[in-house]
Amino acid sequence: MKLLRRYWLTALAILVSGVVFLIPFAFIIMMAFKDRKQAALLDFSWPQGLHLWDNVVEVVTTRNWMLLTAFINSSILTVASVTLLVVFAAMVGFVLQRRKAKWNGLVEFLILAGLMIPPAIVPTIWLLQGLGLFGKLHGLVLVEIAYGLPFSILLYRAFIATIPRDLDEAAIIDGARPFDVFFRVILPLLWPVTVTNIVVQSVAVFNDFTNPLYYLPGNQNATVQLTLYNFQSQFNSSYNLLFTNIALITIPPLIVFLFFNRQIVAGMTAGAVKG
Amino acid sequence: MAGLELKALHKTYGQVPVIKGVDLSVSHGEFVVFVGPSGCGKSTLLRMIAGLEDITSGELWIGDRLCNAVEPRDRGIAMVFQSYALYPHMTVYDNVGFGLKLARTDKAERDRKIRDAARILQMEHLLDRKPSQLSGGQRQRVAIGRAIVRQPEVFLFDEPLSNLDAALRVDMRMELAKLHQDLGSTMIYVTHDQVEAMTLADKIVVLNGGVVQQVGAPIDLYQRPANLFVAGFIGSPKMNFAEVSVQSINGGMVTVASKDISAVTVAADTKSLKVGDRLTLGVRPHHLSMDASGTLVGGVSLVERLGNETNVSLRLPSGATWLVVLDGDHNLRPAQALQLAIDAEKVVLFDAAGQSLLAAM
Ligand SMILES: Nc1ncnc2c1ncn2[C@@H]1O[C@H](COP(=O)(O)OP(=O)(O)O)[C@@H](O)[C@H]1O
Ligand SMILES: [Mg+2]
């Protein structure tokens, strides 16, 4: 009784988070095991018979192996966007923090604007078409970088402020050119924030649904999130396949999270407290 | 072979002048110390020499090269920072070798140089550690090692010892002096600690408010300060000062007196003096002695007995407080009256503008 009185709030919190986070997940997994008929009921029931393998095979081979193309596209998109995002954001944060110039105010305003002003789709498409990048994967890479940059810059700049300037100067005296200072001294020290950026941004880019929908039309260009439409239509939805698909495309972000889990919080709070 | 020549160096931040025209010449192998109170521009001047700050106007010559626009890496300098500024993600070995790596020195050569530097500084056993695993003194060694491997013509130090505790500071000071002897390079050393300046320097440059007050050997600055600022800054404990007026002038000798001092006759540059001029008299605490026929009387307010000497804080009739250092141990009581003689040969007089009136030697 005493135990219950002391820990009831904790128990409640665990229970609530279990319901909120685990039940949908369990639902996805169970649906992925069902056959089409049982899945159509959309209820929370134990699967009758194991149909996972059939479902997986069907999902993967649908529309001429579209999921595979989508995985490749999404991987290229994610790796390219996040790599460039990390390098550019760290560079901008570095210059912004270190070199006080009169246009710093303007740059900071643009960064905040990038965070606050909602993206305008049609003008962006015009611009991409003008540049010949509309419907191209590298065009979408640029779009993802542009959308992710402000947040990443803010993370980096706060952290760079805690790296003493003496370090830059010692490197300069040692004969480092600006790129050496950045890549050999500053960037390695930014690792905690870089991890945070990699995780946050790669999950965001990988899970992005709207931007690929707008800027990357065409079956050959599908990204993983768009494959969900294969099994969902107004009159005829194969829920077992839909949820199998969901389960499959959730795996990569999950791996990233498990892998970097510990270091994320360090990067989020680094720079907040000097120590 | 590299001396330094600074010609009318100026530095302004926005509208604020920080270095206001510094002329200085340093010959090869000299140990020069910039000393001055905090904020007087010592670091700024050093950083201008290093190339970390732009030179607003004036010329900087290192060796026989005009270096105003030369990149820091090409100036033949190395610098040791107050914060050590070691690269936290590299081992000591990589910290020391970073400059060589950037210069694309080949691997065997690099290894030899790093180990040489480590041997000179007795830190061979630290090479595999990260900076966070080192004590303050060890970090300082690594920072110096990083400077040594560059084999610079000129070493620049910006208050390198001020983060160390007192005992370690004394040790490192001696090591630096020894390093200078061994390497024979030119060294420029910034400090606000005048004891470091006195003990290390071949030549001291006293700065105040971005202006050079005096340049000279430590003992010259101590004995023949050029102005009130230098007199007050160099020497510990500080020199005592008193307002006096000229009583009489006799050839190269001038007799001065004040409310506190009955009369003292001092050798001075008397050319521009006349009877009645108001001057400032300066005398060091060590140059006062107990004497029943002395010219100075005051009341003891505080006594520190150190055994070999006695520090006395003396309250003069005018209300001023002087410090006296008496040889040997004296059992003095507070409020006791003390009569002192001033060693007239060691007295320095300053005119109304604060410039000293030392007789030519
Ligand atoms: N980046 C800067 N911008 C404006 N003023 C500066 C800057 N750096 C130094 N100063 C000013 O220049 C003066 C000299 O500084 P510094 O050379 O660091 O003094 P110190 O003799 O203590 O080393 C100080 O008054 C300081 O406020
Ligand atoms: Mg300083």
Q: Order of strands in the sheet with the most strands of chain B?
A: 6-7-8-3-9-10
Low-pLDDT stretches of chain B are none
Secondary structure: helix percent of chain A? over 70%
Tally of contiguous helical segments of chain B: 8
The gross shape of chain B turns out to be elongated
Going by CATH, the homologous superfamily of chain A would be: MetI-like
- Biggest sheet of chain A, in brief? none
SSE order of chain B: EEEHEEEHHHEHEHEEHHEEEEEEEEEE
Estimated share of beta-strand residues of chain A: under 5%
> What is the largest interface, and how many residues per chain?
A-B, 16 and 22 residues
CA distance, first residue to last residue of chain A? 43 Å
What is the beta-strand fraction of chain B? 25-35%
CATH topology of chain A: MetI-like fold
Arithmetic mean pLDDT of chain A: 88
Structural class of chain A: mainly alpha
**What bound compounds does this protein have?**
adenosine-5'-diphosphate, magnesium ion
Which architecture of chain A per CATH? Answer: Orthogonal Bundle
The helix/strand order of chain A is HHHHHHHHHHH
Radius of gyration of chain B: 25 Å
Structure description:
The complex is a heterodimer of chains A (275) and B (361). Chain A has 275 residues and is mainly α. Chain A has a single domain (66-270), classed as MetI-like fold (Orthogonal Bundle), CATH 1.10.3720.10. Chain A is built from eleven helices and no strands. Chain A has helices spanning 2-33, 36-39, 52-98, 104-116, 121-131, 137-160, 165-173, 178-189, 191-206, 210-215, 239-269. In chain A, helix 3 (52-98) packs across helix 9 (191-206) and helix 7 packs across helix 8. The longest helix of chain A is centred in the first third of the chain and has 47 residues, at 52-98. Chain A is globular. In chain A, 32% of the residues are buried. Chain B contains eight helices and 20 strands. The longest helix of chain B is centred in the middle third of the chain and has 18 residues, at 166-183. A six-stranded mixed beta sheet of chain B has the order 6-7-8-3-9-10, with helices on both faces. In chain B, strands 13-12-11-14-20 form a five-stranded antiparallel beta sheet. Chain B is 23% helix and 34% strand. Chain B is an alpha+beta fold and 361 residues long. The A-B interface holds A 164, 166-167, 169-176, 180, 184-185, 188-189 and B 50-52, 72-73, 77-79, 81-83, 85-89, 98-99, 102-103, 146, 150. The site of magnesium ion (MG) has 3 residues of chain B, from helix 1.
